[in-house]
Amino acid sequence: STHTYRRGGNNNRNHRSDDHKLNNASRQSNRPHRRPNHRFNPRRNRRYNHEREVPESNQATCLRKQIESNSHECMVCYDTINAYCATYSCSQCFNIFHLTCIRQWAQSKLEDQVDMQESAAHWTCPACQMPATDLPFRYLCYCKAVINPVFKPFILPHSCGEKCSRSRDCDHSCPEPCHPGKCPPCMFTVVKACHCGDHVKRVKCSERDTEFQCSKVCGRALNCGKHVCEALCHPSDCGRCVHSNNLACYCSKTKRDVSCGDENASENSGSIGFWRCGAVCGRRLACGNHKCPELCHPLQCPPCSSDTGAVRTCPCGKTDLRKILSTPRSSCLDPIPTCKKDCRKELPCGNETQKHFCTSQCHSGPCPPCQQKSLIMCTCRSMSEAMRCSDIPEGGLKCERVCFKKEKSTDCDSALIPLL
Fold it and tell me: What is the pTM (predicted TM-score) of this model?
């Protein structure tokens, strides 16, 4: 820059004013930074501005301005796209390419995948890398409704000029004429309710997924069905009821606090229970002579196992009582007669291949201990012994050797392995 000097002495000639210095510094700070011996290339700078990411809200406007001024560049050949070129627009990133360029790009990508199966071969968009399998052969308008759109001076190049036919993520169609870039957000209004559903308001369709909260209590019913949610309007589930009640078990022997909604009410013999205590029920059965032998349970107790209507055979189940008794039983307290056949009920001892059965004559009550023999081995299998099932110790057969199969050297402490 040139500087003027005032006549009148060295002070005026060698010193600038403070205002002049400030203006000169501000001008130099606003100049673009250039490297030494670097020639400014406006075409290169335009390309840089075109390739950097543009927000979706401004992409359609930028593309429209570049298409109208013939300044939009194809990302394959880096040449400008004029109004008479056949173009291709990506359906995901909405970048515009020459149709011939994108076709050659796709063919080269598919040729590199010759060894792949035909269903797996694909090419990707140069900008967003979206995969595609079909080669781009047709010249379509931006909304892909018209093939080979004719250029008209009064409409945007490569546009059909009709209403945009692209679908959006709502039920409303795009009101804009055929345009490049993403369709603008839907501006129609819809009714949106708050989390608790007590208040509604009209919002833009594009903001219909945005939740809003009112200032009232939720008031929705909780899992118990008796109480309501006392929190302020909120999303998702209201959670479980925090109230509790002191309730009796099914057999009415014990009471405890049960969370509201977790109880399972059941009526039994005129009383209502809500949970299991694990003790023997002990209620009087319908016969009036015996008590329920089952653990605390809901619903009614089972019928008496000795009832005249329930018992129709002898204890071993092989002979009908009508063949043994001359007169039928009148009460559950009457003894059940036995026959002279062997019981033959299956015993808990033995194994799957050779089961043991009761060899006693038909009898009431549990079967006597088994008198048959089984070959028993300890876990380390260093000792075996044939012994009666009734004489087998409760803890199992143990030898005096050290069991080397365990991680720690301890005396053999085995489970029973009946073999016979």
Answer: 0.45
